[in-house]
Amino acid sequence: MHDIALIIGSLRKESNTRRLALAVRDLAVSSLRIEDVPIGDLRLYNQDLESAPPREWVAFRDRISRADGVLFATPEYNRSVPGGLKNALDVGSRPYGKSRWAGKPAAVLSATSGGLGGFGANHHLRQSLVFLDMPAMQQPEAYISSSATLFDDGQLKADLRTFMQSFIDAFARWVDRFASARAHDSAA
């Protein structure tokens, strides 16, 4: 079972993105061990602090280092990712040359109350993942619109549940693919 870090871009406790990400996490219990890795307490990245990094940075970097892959869930703020998520990317990628993200397979799920499903945030995040050397799963894409209407009596609606199951199953195969390649490279 692969260890997956779940990075949720919304800091709001009851956000629709958070609710969706945690529901997706629960769909993966047979294939992935997904742990929510909070980003709200990370101090803003400032290179001046690298001589004595804040303990929150150290713990975050250690957790990302241990992960076999990363699942990102993001809302869309101004056609991009929230500042807290961008800060987490920066904290995990520094100091230069010691990125904790490098080589980790990733998937992006975006959710918004609007009709585009966070398309802008999803693709903006993918641009950063390319630079961070994180192979991002291409299909299925997950742009979830009308996020305030995703649940019935606290449960994902049936059609969305079916789609999200296919998404997380594809991500499990994606992570397997990279784990197999690493195992092959180690044996060679």
Describe this structure in words.
This protein has 188 residues and is an alpha/beta fold. It has a single domain, classed as Rossmann fold, CATH 3.40.50. The protein is 41% helix and 16% strand. The chain has helices spanning 16-27, 55-66, 83-93, 119-131, 158-187; strands at 2-8, 32-36, 69-74, 106-111, 142-144, 151-152, 155-156. The strands form two sheets. It has a five-stranded parallel β-sheet with strand order 2-1-3-4-5, sandwiched between helices. Strands 6-7 form a two-stranded antiparallel sheet. Helix 4 (119-131) links the parallel strand 4 (106-111) and strand 5. It is globular. The two termini are 23 Å apart. The mean pLDDT is 93.
Number-wise, the strands total 7
The CATH C-level name is: Alpha Beta
Sum up the overall morphology in one term. globular
- Spatial strand sequence of the major β-sheet: 2-1-3-4-5
From the alpha carbons, calculate the radius of gyration and give it in angstroms. Answer: 16 Å
Secondary-structure element string? EHEHEHEHEEEH
Distance between the termini: 23 Å
Low-confidence regions: none
Class based on secondary structure composition and strand pairing: alpha/beta
How would you state the average pLDDT, rounded?
93
What is the name of the CATH architecture? 3-Layer(aba) Sandwich
Q: Tally the structural domains.
A: 1
Number of helices: 5
Percentage of residues assigned to helices: 40-55%
